[in-house]
Amino acid sequence: MTNISESQIREIVKKILTENENGKAKWSATEYNGRKFIGIFSDMNEAIDAAERGYKAVRNMTVEQREKIITEIRRLTRENAEILGRLGVEETGMGNPEHKRLKHILVADKTPGTEDIVSEAKTGDGGLTLTEMAPFGVVGAITPSTNPSETVICNSIGMIAAGNGVVFNPHPNAIATSNYAVDLVNRASKAAGGPEILVCSMDEPTMDSAKIMQTHPKIKLLVCTGGPGVVKAVLSSGKKAIGAGAGNPPVIVDDTADIQKAGKDIIDGCCFDNNLPCIAEKEVFAFDNIADELIAAMKKNGAYMINSEQADRLAGIVLVEKTSKSGAKVKTVSRECVGRDASVLLSKIGITVGKEIRCIICETGFMHDFVQYELMMPILPIVRVKNIDEAIDLAVKAEHGNRHTAHMHSKNIDNLSAFAKAVETTIFVKNAPSYAGIGFGGEGHTTFTIAGPTGEGITSARSYTRKRRCVMSDSFRII
Ligand code: NAD
């Protein structure tokens, strides 16, 4: 008979409790390793009613109490960042667990809280007029598969700071990860003295549950983070809506740039979470006279160059043709390829590389699918241009009028200004990786809901408020 120590028994018990037969954590839309998620419903109407109770509880809190809950959300987010990073990749098959962990830390550290809500006072001969940022009530939020828990936590912090209740209809492909985040927010609420259910979600979110949310009289604001289809749907709902939609961020590199730094920055930004962030570099327009040096710098930083025949073959795999509702054939990105490692994508065209390869680069013409489609994969086409006019013209066209994000590496302030003005994006990053635009290595707060179409921009608590005015006529001046 073998002797087993107490610590070994504890290890075995822990393993049985936390791992399934594949050695991985057990999870579903409603639980993680046996821990039941709080705030998850099967019926959207019930979820909205619960979110309304959460809203009423928040309304009765002081700002200090709300901030206590937010502090606890930040703490739990840091504590759970690694699990959420792993779970996000395991569930969706997309992204990089370490980068996802860093995204959660960013959300915990740089999402503004109640300090973002600022009142305004105007005084004059007529007295005092006060303008306050009030909550909307219950917010209905639709979240993506690409940054699932990051968006749920970031939205929750901002919406709670503003005094709202929230109900989520998360992406079905990331439901366990999203609901883990909903549960985290509710646990933080309870631990900080708030209601047990502050934010709510669905166990099986569908288009129908989204529709109920979009038309329900108790939902006063819709916030949608996702592709063009869903943004259009919420903007047609007849309710106040914040839409954070698709991008296809171009990068221009001119011949005044620090080319070595540009090569590294572009690859770092493009490969972050396997290119899932909507702000990540998607195509490069490089001056002809520095393109070779730029490509060499990219190769030094983990890029693998494929030729045009290989690029066409890969395009035939990562983009697939589907038939739309109207019967038309439309090309769309393959969900099997979005957010996958460069080595996995290369293996699809028979190329084997090691983990040191982070990105696939290739030279293409402007009309190539790699330039025109928002791939959300570590594939970066490079188009040679003669001068700044051609670079700006093509980069603006490649951005497709999303007015989302653009990047430039240059030391020529005229060129930088000319592109910034022409492209009209919500975010414009100069001489840095794309993620500097959401506060990662750059100044400013973070968000995972970048609302270009509706103009809120880098959303924060104040985006989820409505202004209310109180007038005290002829009084309350102190001078
Ligand atoms: P997606 O558009 O497939 O899904 C987003 C959400 O909308 C999901 O919850 C989905 O179930 C739901 N949905 C889709 N169509 C709908 C409809 N007609 N009515 C109601 N709900 C609907 O998004 P995804 O693939 O997970 O995310 C990637 C896309 O989102 C990219 O285009 C990316 O650029 C964009 N995105 C934008 C931002 C931003 O801040 N602007 C952030 C993240 C992602």
Characterise this structure.
By secondary structure, the protein is α/β, with parallel strands linked by helices. It has 2 domains: 6-245 and 457-467, Aldehyde Dehydrogenase, Chain A, domain 1 (3-Layer(aba) Sandwich); 250-444, Aldehyde Dehydrogenase, Chain A, domain 2, CATH 3.40.309.10. It is 40% helix and 21% strand. The protein is built from 15 helices and 22 strands. The protein has a 7-stranded parallel beta sheet, sandwiched between helices. Helix 3 (63-92) runs antiparallel to helix 4 (97-110) and helix 5 (148-161) runs parallel beside helix 6 (175-191). The longest helix is centred in the N-terminal third of the chain and has 30 residues, at 63-92. Nicotinamide-adenine-dinucleotide binds next to helix 7 and helix 8.
Topology:
Layout: H1 6-18, E1 31-32, E2 35-36, E3 40-41, H2 44-59, H3 63-92, H4 97-110, E4 120-124, E5 127-135, E6 138-142, H5 148-161, E7 165-169, H6 175-191, E8 199-202, H7 207-215, E9 219-225, H8 228-235, E10 241-244, E11 250-253, H9 259-271, E12 283-287, H10 288-300, E13 303-305, H11 308-318, E14 319-323, E15 329-333, H12 342-347, E16 359-363, H13 369-372, E17 379-385, H14 388-398, E18 405-409, H15 413-423, E19 427-430, E20 450-451, E21 457-458, E22 465-473
**What is the global morphology?**
globular
CATH architecture of the largest domain: 3-Layer(aba) Sandwich
What's the β-strand tally? Answer: 22
- The percentage of residues in β strands lies in 15-25%
Low-pLDDT runs of 5+ residues are 13-18
Q: Superfamily at the CATH H level of the largest domain?
A: Aldehyde Dehydrogenase, Chain A, domain 1
Oligomeric nature of the chains: single chain
